[in-house]
Amino acid sequence: MSAPFSIQCFTCAKCKRLFNASAEQNAMVINNSTGAVVCQGCAEPGNTSSLAPYLQMIQEATMAIPKHVPVKPRDLEAQTSQTTRQNQQEKSIRIYETMTQLNIMDRILYDAQRQGRIAFYMTNSGEEGNHVGSAAALEDQDLIYGQYREVGVLMWRGFPVDQFMHQCYGNSKDLGKGKQMPIHYGSQEHNFVMISSPLSTQMPQAVGSAYAFKRQPNNSRVVCVYFGDGGASEGDAHAAFNFAATLDCPIIFFCRNNGYAISTPTTEQYGGDGIAGQGPGYGLHTIRVDGNDLFAVYNATRRARKLALSNKPVLIEAMTYRLGHHSTSDDSTTYRSADEVQKWGSGDHPIERFKAYLMEKGWWTEQREQEWALQVRERVLTAFAASEKIQRAPYHEMFEGVYDKLPAPLRRQRQELDDHLAEFGTHYPLDRHLKKY
Amino acid sequence: MALRNIALLCGRTRGVLATRGAAHFNFQPTEAPKEYGEERTKMNLCQAVNNAMDIAMATDPSAILFGEDVAFGGVFRCSLGLKDKYGSDRVFNTPLCEQGIAGFGIGVAVAGSTAIAEIQFGDYIFPAYDQLVNEAAKYRYRSGGLFECGKLTVRATWGAVGHGALYHSQSPEANFTHTPGIKVVVPRGPTQAKGLLLSCIRDDNPAIFFEPKILYRLAAEEVPTGDFMIPLSKAETVRSGKDVTIVSWGTQVHVSLEAAQLAQEKLGVSVEVIDLQTIQPWDEEHIVQSVKKTGRLIVSHEAPKTSGFGAEIAAAIQERCFLHLESPVARSCGWDTPFPHVYEPFYLPTVWRVFDSIKKTVNF
């Protein structure tokens, strides 16, 4: 059995004396400014780090995940010195209404997929708090990049319910003109970049945008990029963290750690201390919050925004739980217990927790709850029914947007399709599409 | 006229395209040759893949299967039961990272163990592109044969599924056929999936096996239960004919078969349909012999037309069979756009587009 590698003897870089390090523990130190190994006698006071007498692996950090504590009424951190109690109340109610509207819309659209009315859907159940809490702490001009489970963020920004519907139906009023699957939202007006399915590709992109903003005179915009515990394993996440830190970008990395990447639990996703544990390694200001605590999310994002605006990138890891299935193509009962879901759903729901706060403040009542639920349901169902009737865009739209202008060979392909449909059109669902805009 | 013909002619079947979930084709089962084994059982493509992996792992103790979500059975259930049977050291989830899955798989193979690496959707294979193109494909060549990763097989889902849009429908084979050193294989049904996958796993070259996701449940037939392999780089004539040759692979073989049937009934044209099976290295000789017989060739694939593998076949055939050709080689493919969501029925090379192509080819 060989002895562990150890540095037995040192020579002080300054006085050149020889020291037996294992016999004289702490005899040697490292000079922080020069990196030289010197003896205590030659060390500059206050400018040294201790030298381990033998090779020592850094123990894995064991940053404990904050234990869930019941919500104590707390106020939103003041956005400006002019924030009044009235503003607090209005904002809090608006936050709650957004979270609950999202929850109701999710249920309706999930059922719609089950009924075969839309092709696909992903819910946001259990994550309403981390969406709206972070969105409410940002400014409207901040650019947002999402993964696919951040509907509450877009909803907070004011994306109308009927636009969500149009996108799910892919009809002619969909901003994306029906090219993408449902839930792939985006809105230039609301500074929310169009979602794409590949994971984490948005992360380095977000950093690039942040850098471009930094170069604008009097920049007042940060970028906030959302991703999940699974997405954080992609190579693009590493690239993004590293670029943000080395290039001092005004960006907030918001990780929704919801416990699962489809069926893969976090125990199989990383070996270290979550995503937050990686942040300091890259040089990012890092905070881990209880993602189901609206205040924690809001206040952390507020603080992060301030840092980011001074070009110090921040990583927020919001611990939460994915109550729903990954998507309508998933059945999570095959890999997790009903008990586990129940425990989170009834014991730690962001909506319930925030509601308790509002009720205690006297800003919300059970009666208001019932009225609101009916109002939202009707709004959503009306939008849904209307959207279903709207036809799809003309099929020529399929050829648009490949490039800024339609290239000649593609125009010939479009003509080829036109000619084909002239003869065989009865075999195609032309009646579902507008003839022209 | 047969009821089926009436349905086809009045477009009712194709009208079904408008209904959510209905496929744009009918799966045509084939009967497996006797030499693959007498004992058979009904399997769909997903079960056939599962069966192939089961046999591979039973016969090769070094074989391991890994990727995203494979432990619980996989998002398409292709790995169902394998973790329980072979243990979590042999069937396991990796972190969510395709470049990692590919690189890791190469390393497993270099160390002499058999790696079955799953990429959940072919659309997500691109982070792994560097590893596959620059490493896997070149390992043997660049080392004078000292090192190789032939024990690597990458499985990825593939092709149109009805509502997959840009990122759940792609057919990325041409991105890899352009790279010498890697094999690319696409099965058209359960029997082919089992036999070809076993061949890929046991072949001494890194291979990418694309599984048509729309066929996982939809394609079911009697599949031999034993250990059998279908040779790589061998095309199969699925329907004999003398007037026109159609070459296709995967789901599109079934579309081509329907178009061929229509051509027979409506035009009296005899169409030969060939399933290429191995896209690279492809069975050029088999196609040449067919085209020398028919004098007319159509290649049909879902992937966009420009630089699709049809372009390679067309170029090679006009080189080899120029004087035999009665008409230009036609390609009935996806348009040169990203794969669109609601426009899918207009995007795909449907039965009617292939039929249209046959008509134009014989009337040239």
UniProtKB/TrEMBL annotation, chain A:
Q: Provide the coiled-coil residue spans.
A: none
Q: Which residues form the Dehydrogenase E1 component domain?
A: 97-389
Cofactor needs: thiamine diphosphate
Q: Name one Pfam family in it.
A: E1_dh
The record lists the membrane-crossing segments as: none
What processes in GO biological process is this protein linked to? branched-chain amino acid catabolic process
Give GO cellular component annotations, separated by semicolons: mitochondrial matrix
A GO molecular-function descriptor: branched-chain 2-oxo acid dehydrogenase activity
Q: Which UniProt keywords apply?
A: Metal-binding, Mitochondrion, Oxidoreductase, Potassium, Thiamine pyrophosphate, Transit peptide
InterPro entries (alphabetical) = Alpha-ketoacid_DH_E1_comp (IPR050771), DH_E1 (IPR001017), THDP-binding (IPR029061)
Query: Which reaction is recorded as catalysed by this protein?
Result: N(6)-[(R)-lipoyl]-L-lysyl-[protein] + 3-methyl-2-oxobutanoate + H(+) = N(6)-[(R)-S(8)-2-methylpropanoyldihydrolipoyl]-L-lysyl-[protein] + CO2
EC number annotated for this UniProt entry? 1.2.4.4
Q: Where in the cell is it found?
A: Mitochondrion matrix
Q: What does this protein do?
A: The branched-chain alpha-keto dehydrogenase complex catalyzes the overall conversion of alpha-keto acids to acyl-CoA and CO(2). It contains multiple copies of three enzymatic components: branched-chain alpha-keto acid decarboxylase (E1), lipoamide acyltransferase (E2) and lipoamide dehydrogenase (E3).
UniProt lists the family membership as follows: Belongs to the BCKDHA family.
Could you identify this protein by its name?
2-oxoisovalerate dehydrogenase subunit alpha
UniProtKB/TrEMBL annotation, chain B:
The EC code for this enzyme is 1.2.4.4
User: Subunit composition?
Assistant: Heterotetramer of 2 alpha/BCKDHA and 2 beta chains/BCKDHB that forms the branched-chain alpha-keto acid decarboxylase (E1) component of the BCKD complex. The branched-chain alpha-ketoacid dehydrogenase is a large complex composed of three major building blocks E1, E2 and E3. It is organized around E2, a 24-meric cubic core composed of DBT, to which are associated 6 to 12 copies of E1, and approximately 6 copies of the dehydrogenase E3, a DLD dimer.
What protein name is recorded for this chain? 2-oxoisovalerate dehydrogenase subunit beta, mitochondrial
Q: Which residues form the Transketolase-like pyrimidine-binding domain?
A: 43-218
Per the record, its GO cellular-component terms are:
mitochondrial matrix
Q: Name one Pfam family in it.
A: Transket_pyr
Chemical reaction(s) catalysed: N(6)-[(R)-lipoyl]-L-lysyl-[protein] + 3-methyl-2-oxobutanoate + H(+) = N(6)-[(R)-S(8)-2-methylpropanoyldihydrolipoyl]-L-lysyl-[protein] + CO2
GO BP annotations listed:
branched-chain amino acid catabolic process; response to nutrient
Q: Where in the cell is it found?
A: Mitochondrion matrix
Cofactors demanded by this protein: thiamine diphosphate
Q: Which domain of life is it from?
A: Eukaryota
Any GO molecular function: branched-chain 2-oxo acid dehydrogenase activity
Q: Which UniProt keywords apply?
A: Mitochondrion, Oxidoreductase, Transit peptide
